[in-house]
Design brief:
Blueprint lengths: L3 E12 L2 E12 L3 E5 L6 H8 L7 E6 L2 E2 L4 H7 E4 L11 H11 L4 H14 L15 H12 L6 E5 L7 H16 L3 E6 L2 H7 L2 E6 L2 E6 L1 H8 L2 E6 L5 E7 L3 H14 L5 E5 L3 H9 L13
Parallel strand pairs: 3-8, 3-9, 6-7, 7-8
Antiparallel strand pairs: 1-2, 1-4, 4-5, 9-10, 11-12, 11-13
Helix pairs in contact: 3-4, 3-5, 8-10
Bound molecules: adenosine-5'-triphosphate.
Length: about 300
């Protein structure tokens, strides 16, 4: 029995002299959500393209639903759905027409296609917009339609490449809910994201991709534990974040850091002590933070 929906072993890919993936090894348990977290250009899309058989790796191997991505490409393609970063829907057609077209292309009869279209419009909250042209849709509606189109035929493994990039908070949350629902239906979901909160909220397991390698992997709590202890946050008069300093949380360490801060900080800086966030994990593992604030270095 195949326990892992996705198994990746030593995948490498370079473009010219640029090594994009430098020996990726990971596994994704069936029925879970796995988030690959990394900054712009880290190689997330490249990995998804390799796993969905669109790009050939230089070396290494991977299995999807038990099928080898190199020697068993057709079976891999039958086992996956893929939603990329750019909408794959026809803007001139309505949402309903897009779903009907994809259903017919996937081999469903006209009657089956109508039933499936209705189900998907309902599942992705697109019933009201069903007969409007896609070019009038909001970003969130397009993403939902895109996801619906890729799920016309239900497959066990779903690849989502940055599913919520560019969406507002409300649309992002609604899409998260739909992704959770797909997991509840038994799907295995591999998603890439630049948003720490997204990985934190959705994923059973998170891997941080940096410099072509998986810098760390684990549950959100395990990754936060790697940063350890607590974080001292420095805030200005309007409660704006000025910086943060990791501490092991002991009285001794906190006192020492506060003493150093007292000597170097303006008097109106306030402090808050809190548990590490995914931001701190990212910063600790990659040396760069996607958030606006910077780690303050003492001494
Ligand atoms: N076909 C290609 N030819 C040359 N270089 C490429 C090609 N595809 C990707 N790259 C390079 O590989 C690196 C990783 O790109 P990739 O799109 O996988 O990153 P990413 O993590 O998905 O980033 P983003 O969040 O910006 O999509 C980038 O430096 C990119 O320029």
């Amino acid at each position: 029995m195949v326990l892992h929906a996705i198994e990746v072993n030593g995948l490498r890919k370079s473009y010219g002299a640029h090594t994009v993936l430098d020996g990726i090894r990971l596994s994704v348990a069936k029925g879970t959500i796995y988030a690959l977290l990394g900054p712009n250009g880290a190689g997330k899309t490249t990995l998804i393209h390799i796993l969905s058989t669109l790009v050939h790796p230089d070396s290494g191997s991977a299995r999807i639903a038990g099928y080898d991505i190199l020697s068993d490409r057709n079976n891999v393609r039958q086992a996956i759905s893929l939603t990329g970063q750019f909408a794959a829907v026809d803007e001139v057609l309505t949402g309903s027409e897009n779903l009907m077209m994809m259903s017919r292309l996937s081999g469903l009869s006209a009657a089956q296609s109508r039933t499936r279209t209705k189900e998907l419009l309902q599942q992705f909250e697109l019933e009201e917009a069903a007969f409007k042209r896609v070019k009038t849709y909001s970003g969130g509606m397009r993403r939902r339609l895109d996801l619906a189109v890729s799920l016309v035929v239900s497959r066990p493994v779903l690849f989502l490449d940055e599913p919520t990039t560019g969406l507002d908070t409300a649309s992002r949350r609604s899409l998260w809910e739909m992704i959770r629902q797909l997991k509840n239906e038994g799907m295995t979901i591999f998603l890439t994201t630049q948003y720490l909160e997204e990985a934190d909220q959705l994923a059973d397991e998170i891997a941080v991709l940096n410099g072509g390698r998986i810098a760390a992997a684990g549950t959100a709590d395990e990754l936060k534990a790697r940063v350890g202890g607590e974080v001292i946050e420095l805030r200005g008069l309007k409660d704006e974040l000025i910086g943060s300093i990791p501490t092991d949380g002991s009285v001794r360490d906190v006192r020492q850091k506060l003493n150093e801060l007292e000597a170097s900080c303006p008097p109106d800086v306030r402090i808050v002590i809190r548990k590490p966030s995914m931001d701190d994990v990212f910063l600790a593992l990659t040396g760069s933070s996607p958030a606006l604030h910077k780690e303050v270095s003492l001494g």
